[in-house]
Amino acid sequence: MGEPAAAAGAVLVQGGTVVDATGERRADVVVAGGRVQAVGLDLTAPPGAHVLDAGGCVVTPGLVDLHTHLREPGGEESETVETGCRAASVGGFTAVVAMPNTDPPLDSAAAVRAVLDLARAATAEVAVAGAITVGRRGERLAPMAEMAALGVRIFTDDGAGVQSAGVMRRALEYGGALGVTLAQHCEDASLAGGGSMHEGSWSSRLGVPGIPGLAEEVMVARDIALAGHTGTRVHFLHLSTARSVDLVRRAKADGVPVTAEAAPHHFALTDSDVSGYDPVFKVNPPLRSQHDVEAIVVGLADGTIDAIATDHAPHPPESKDLPFDQAPPGMLGLETALSLAITELGLPLRQVVGLLSWRPAAIAGLDVASGGEQGGPVVAGSPANLCVIDPVATWTVDPSALASRSRNTPYAGRTLTGRVRHTLFRGEPVVVDAVAQR
Ligand code: DOR
């Protein structure tokens, strides 16, 4: 989706270690005309080339976020396609999947086209996720075929789950014929209704109505059954509980076509972080127990969970400046995801990058095998969407320094390891030395 921008000038990425799905090797990378021209040792800079220092760094395919709220149209005070893509670039992402819970929602070809038009000038590729149902109301199927004709490969009512099993079954049958993936925000409203945080010992202690893990798990179980029945792939958004991970593990062992993602806050934070009633820690699904966090980490390590996705959910300060139960759920994610994964997961860097790049690229249909330009490998001729990561640099999160239009990060003051040094999008250095270039 989208159209490649005008070919950028030549760039030499010098002195790094290339890490992609095929392995790792010390190599310089020459980029010109939006593509990788050469990968090898001691390459010479083409005349006039911009030389980017990658000493001590790894050079990877650009990261791909399966779950970004860009807020346009309707929520421009929190984020726009332009500012969200700038935040993506700073976080090392060269592609994002934009969620359809905008105002109005992205539930028609016209709405999808408008976002794709805005994305033409952005610093990352924007793939749009279309709504499954009209207005995201869970009742009537949206015109998925006309959105698929524009290149939409993922459909979801994210922000809400499709409550009716019958509607979801029809969506899967229709989606299967279109060759698309349905992504589910698993939350049974009748179990979650009225809750603001994870239901457990902390919610009892704090007197905040809880959202039980069960609200997620019953829909995961239901949709595994529906995916098995219809044969259409279901992607589970932001899994947050130990039982959800177990259900997906067993479904995969049974050959059911499912994939799953987890968000950084579901492995980096727990429900105990809500103890000060600060709405910056309010998110949906909610921050869960330490036991759940440990299961998410195991699921990411053993491949049960295919990808890390940010659920980047910008909100303006005035909306988060409300009592906990009244504030909207959601937290920023794009600019901290990679660093949190490096800092918290204890996994080899190549595995972390796989969870953030080539595996989500394949799920979104943005990988080279699907005709896209994301996820690598970093070889001559491939599209020059690259991320240069310093894996040992440390930095402290400062909300006022974020590229996002919003400030609702729960990691303010936290020192993280691993930082994006440069990002190249279609050959253009859009981030240099951790600074956005436009
Ligand atoms: O915390 C959340 N915020 N969860 C969602 O599902 C929606 C998102 C938003 O759009 O703010």
Task: Give an overview of the whole structure.
This protein has 438 residues and is of the alpha/beta class. It folds into two domains: 11-59 and 379-436, Urease, subunit C, domain 1 (Roll); 61-370, Metal-dependent hydrolases (TIM Barrel, Alpha-Beta Barrel). It contains 14 helices and 19 strands. The protein has helices spanning 81-90, 109-119, 144-148, 165-178, 189-192, 201-206, 213-230, 242-253, 265-268, 290-302, 317-320, 337-345, 349-356, 358-363, and strands at 11-20, 23-32, 35-40, 50-53, 58-61, 63-68, 93-98, 125-130, 154-155, 181-184, 197-198, 210-211, 234-236, 258-262, 307-308, 386-396, 415-425, 428-432, 435-436. The strands form three sheets. Strands 1, 2, 3, 4, 5, 16, 17, 18 and 19 form a nine-stranded mixed β-sheet that branches. Helix 8 (242-253) links the parallel strand 13 (234-236) and strand 14 (258-262). 58% of the residues are buried. Residues 69, 101, 158-159, 185, 283-284, 313, 328-330 line the site of (4S)-2,6-dioxohexahydropyrimidine-4-carboxylic acid.
